[in-house]
């Protein structure tokens, strides 16, 4: 899973969010490392919706314009959990090598 | 400035895209325009002209486009030769007719007639004193069309234009060919299927190098084969790399 995708899914893990909220949460969660341009964000949202990882949870009208709120699907939540577990295990190899080797 | 540029770029997106919502996000984020413009334009072009199909399907679309290019090259190239004095036997005319009908069949999405007609053009071309272009181009086109896949090739004017430029006399073909080839490479940022199609089309030059070895000089033959192989590998590697990257979630 690519890093922007991971943080977009992570941005939606607790509650649905609209485009700007997702963009802000991604920047915050990644400590400003991943800063998505609007075009990139909406390409990713489009792709993730087609892949069934997120869905449009609801639409509202703000200042006369439609605004979609995106939410994780069960498949998206599983994919996010699997990726987080994979990265945690990979990180453990480096951060706590002696525990893994059984010599601590 | 942003008030004019962003709505203009958002018009690149097809209807049904949340353009209004994107415009809100663009203004809300308030980033410098130089950071937003390129991803916004690329996103619109990809949404309108690109492909979000699985990797294998992209290859199949590219194979159909390559077959169409090969048939056009065979057709126009041989027609130019006849116009400039090549004797046109009945078998050659029949081969050309079959190639023309095959090209129409590919464009129209007739799945079964297309490979059969390309194979007929191949057979007739081989019968006509082994016409090398018919044997290699139509043969490869028939093989590419025989693979089950989408009905139509990639919808773009670039493959037929590239094929036409490739058949022009070398004195005229240079710049147009180079410009169209550059356009295909640039367009790979939007749709990588075209650059894959070009790579598959150029495979015919390897087939020709192997089928019609020039003389007995092994160094010359190896050099020719290597240079033609590079012509195939470079576009295929570029297209496949981009397609693979975009297929990752």
TrEMBL record, chain A:
Residues 8-81 form the Transcription regulator PadR N-terminal domain. It comes from the Bacteria. InterPro entries: Metal_resp_DNA-bind_regulator, Tscrpt_reg_PadR_N, WH-like_DNA-bd_sf, WH_DNA-bd_sf. This is Helix-turn-helix transcriptional regulator. It comes from Paractinoplanes ovalisporus.
UniProtKB/TrEMBL annotation, chain B:
The chain crosses the membrane at residues 59-79, 91-110, 161-187, 194-213, 219-244. It comes from the Bacteria. It comes from Paractinoplanes ovalisporus. Keywords: Membrane, Transmembrane, Transmembrane helix. This is Integral membrane protein.
């Amino acid at each position: 899973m690519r890093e922007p995708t991971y943080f977009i899914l992570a941005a939606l893990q607790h509650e649905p969010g609209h485009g700007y909220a997702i963009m802000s949460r991604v920047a915050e969660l990644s400590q400003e490392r991943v800063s998505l341009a609007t075009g990139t964000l909406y390409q990713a949202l489009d792709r993730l919706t087609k892949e069934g990882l997120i869905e449009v949870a609801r639409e509202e009208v703000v200042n006369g314009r439609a605004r979609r709120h995106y939410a994780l699907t069960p498949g998206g939540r599983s994919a996010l959990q699997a990726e987080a577990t994979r990265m945690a295990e990979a990180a453990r190899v480096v951060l706590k090598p002696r525990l893994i080797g059984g010599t601590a | 400035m942003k008030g004019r540029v962003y709505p203009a770029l958002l018009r690149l997106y097809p209807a049904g895209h949340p353009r209004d919502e994107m415009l809100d996000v663009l203004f809300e984020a308030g980033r410098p325009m130089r950071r937003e413009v390129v991803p916004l334009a690329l996103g619109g072009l990809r949404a309108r002209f690109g492909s979000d199909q699985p990797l294998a399907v992209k290859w199949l679309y590219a194979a159909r486009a390559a077959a169409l290019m090969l048939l056009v090259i065979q057709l126009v190239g041989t027609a130019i030769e006849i116009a400039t004095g090549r004797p046109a036997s009945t078998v050659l005319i029949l081969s050309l007719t079959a190639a023309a009908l095959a090209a129409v069949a590919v464009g129209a999405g007739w799945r079964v007639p297309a490979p059969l007609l390309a194979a007929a053009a191949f057979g007739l071309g081989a019968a006509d004193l082994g016409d090398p272009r018919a044997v290699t181009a139509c043969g490869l086109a028939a093989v590419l069309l025989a693979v089950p896949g989408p009905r139509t090739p990639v919808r773009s004017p670039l493959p037929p234009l590239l094929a036409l430029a490739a058949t022009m006399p070398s004195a005229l073909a240079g710049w147009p060919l180079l410009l169209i080839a550059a356009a295909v490479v640039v367009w790979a940022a939007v749709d990588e299927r075209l650059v894959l199609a070009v790579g598959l089309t150029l495979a015919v030059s390897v087939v020709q190098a192997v089928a019609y070895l020039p003389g007995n000089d092994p160094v010359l033959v190896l050099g020719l084969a290597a240079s033609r192989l590079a012509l195939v590998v470079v576009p295929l590697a570029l297209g496949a790399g981009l397609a693979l990257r975009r297929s990752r979630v």
